[in-house]
Design a protein that fits this description.
The protein is an alpha/beta fold. The strands form two sheets. The protein has an eight-stranded parallel barrel, surrounded by nine helices. A two-stranded antiparallel sheet has the order 6-7. A hairpin with a 2-residue loop joins strand 6 and strand 7. Helix content is 38%, strand content 18%. Helix 8 runs parallel beside helix 10. The protein contains eleven helices and twelve strands. The structure holds ligand PBG.
Length: 325
């Protein structure tokens, strides 16, 4: 008891604080999401995400090289494709020569030693912007998992290291695992977006991949209700049972309780996704002089580690890796 116990004693100096630190943020913990577009030498800034660009493949190569040099271990690719390639059933997603497949092959040909994670979901490829195949106005689960398995196979053939289904269909992890294994891709990892919420923090992302044009688009019949956590545990358990190698909780900061609970319950690697809206809030408030960017971005990412995440997807990965240096 005080005054014998003085917790401030361990915070006296910088070396003591470092010695006592429980959670350490490393560049190796970060995954950099990258938006890919057609063309050459293209970098389009995304208005709602200052400092984040849609990049043509040659630029993605440079960005990936820089990420690798800074100690980042993986990138995550997201396509922004032309409207005339979008269709009702996302046909472009199963094209072995689509933008993402060409990006993967180019990166692999350059011999980069950085992991490539690819989103599996149909939203960048559908006219309606939903993650799956529509039947009578709603996303049809079983038709969609077949489509997603095709998409995953195409990505694996192109050389993807990690397949990351972000669609929230039931049974898609097992279906994709079986499809990959049947085609001898037994070593392609699956990172399941297991607890993905129907969040309004994805707004800027939908602008980035141009999938959010529809005013009334809601993903509430497949993404999780923001009010639930028990259901998140069931989703995670299910995905682990179906063969997920790692799981994701998304978004990050508003769902730290979910990360914490999952970390306590499951012996699995947990990734947190600091989504577009979280990034933009911190970035835009910092640009307005309200927050200190360096401090708030490090603080927010450290909170994911403290909650129990082993890795973090963040649009600030490059900047943060530089800061940590
Ligand atoms: C696609 C997908 C989304 C995000 C990642 N994959 C958007 C969505 O589900 O609508 C969001 C990422 C972000 O906001 O940064 N299924």
């Amino acid at each position: 008891m005080f005054p014998i116990v003085r917790l401030r004693r361990n915070r006296r100096t910088s070396w003591l604080r470092d010695l006592m630190a429980e959670s350490i943020l490393r560049p190796e913990d970060l995954v950099l999401p990258i938006f890919v577009i057609e063309g050459e030498n293209q970098r389009q800034e995304i208005k709602t995400m200052p400092g984040v660009y849609r990049q043509s493949i040659d630029q993605v190569v440079n960005t990936a090289k820089e990420a690798q040099a800074r100690g980042i271990k993986a990138i995550a690719l997201f396509p922004s494709i032309d409207d005339d390639l979008k269709s009702e059933n996302a046909d472009e997603a199963y094209n072995l020569d689509n933008l993402i497949c060409r990006t993967i092959r180019t990166l692999k040909n350059k011999g980069l030693e950085i992991g490539i994670s690819c989103d599996v979901a149909l939203d960048p490829y559908t006219i309606h912007g939903h993650d799956g195949i529509l039947l009578d106005g709603d996303v049809d689960n079983d038709a969609t998992i077949e489509a997603l398995s095709n998409q995953a196979l195409v990505l694996a053939k192109a050389g993807a290291d990690i397949i990351a289904p972000s669609d929230m269909m039931d049974g898609r992890i097992m279906a994709i695992r079986e499809e990959l294994d049947a085609n001898n891709f037994i070593n392609v990892n699956i990172l399941a977006y297991a607890a993905k919420y129907n969040s309004s923090f994805y707004g800027p992302f939908r602008e980035a991949v141009r999938s959010g044009k529809k005013e009334y688009l809601t993903k509430s019949t497949y993404q999780m209700d923001i009010r639930n956590i028990k259901e998140a545990m069931r989703e995670i358990e299910q995905d682990i049972t179906e063969g997920a190698d790692m799981i994701m909780v998304k978004p990050g900061m508003p769902y730290l309780d979910v990360i914490r609970e999952a970390a306590g319950r499951f012996d699995v690697h947990i990734f947190a996704y600091q989504v577009s809206g979280e990034y933009s809030m911190l970035k835009i408030a910092s640009e307005a002089g309200v927050l200190d960017w360096q401090k708030v971005i490090i603080e927010s990412l450290t909170s994911f580690k403290r909650a129990g995440a082993s890795g973090i997807f963040t649009y600030a990965a490059l900047e943060v890796a530089k800061m940590i240096e």
